[in-house]
Amino acid sequence: MRIYCERDTLGWFAEPLNTVSGLAFFISAWQAWRQLERARLREQWDLHLLAWLIGLIGLASVLWHASGIGWLHWFDAAAVAAFVLVYWQVFLVRVSQLRWPGLLVGWLVTGAGVALFYLLLPQIFLGSTLAYTPLLALLLAGIVLSARIDRRLARDLLLASGLFVLAMVVRAADLLLCEWVIVGTHWLWHLLTAGLLFVLVDGMIRHVRLRETRVGNDVA
Predict the structure, then answer these.
(1) Nearest to residue 117, comparing CAs of 127, 103, 131?
(2) What is the DSSP code (8-state) at residue 123?
(3) Does residue 140 come out as left (phi exceeding 0), alpha (psi in the -120 to 50 range) or beta?
(4) Measured distance CA(160)–CA(18) in Å, rounded
(5) Sign (positive/negative) of CA torsion 151, 157, 163, 164?
């Protein structure tokens, strides 16, 4: 079964554009690290972990598309899942300011919603773009939760949501347009998602820096 338009054969380097476009995640990670240095947030390990996870997504993506080796697809998926889980945890703690047991309730609600979606989703769609819908739902939830706390962060999440919708469209169009676009459109998915991951981390860095500045001013 053909997974990507560009991969029309087995073996290494059958997806040159999909492979090279995966390097965008490394650029995104590097920019996130630069923002952390500029903000002088050297001790916030959770924010640094997010930047490293973007780099891990890049590594997994490049290896998967360069080789086509089956288990590397799961490495790619695991890297994305790790970023989503860590970012949502950081959001609940840093933005919503949840502590136990509120944090546990937040995760239970999130887990129940995601589990219900996948239980109702027909199995044929599990590997499709539609399977990414819960991630869009998390972004929209983040917009609602942050709107009264940090409007700038809410706008960043809105921008990320727009990028994600566009990314889902080009991902879904990859095989549909293959007859007319011989290299497919999956490489655009990489560029757009790398951009939105940077927007997410950059917005969180700005939020944390602003909150710490306010706390410092209150103490002073």
Answers:
(1) 131
(2) G
(3) alpha
(4) 21
(5) negative
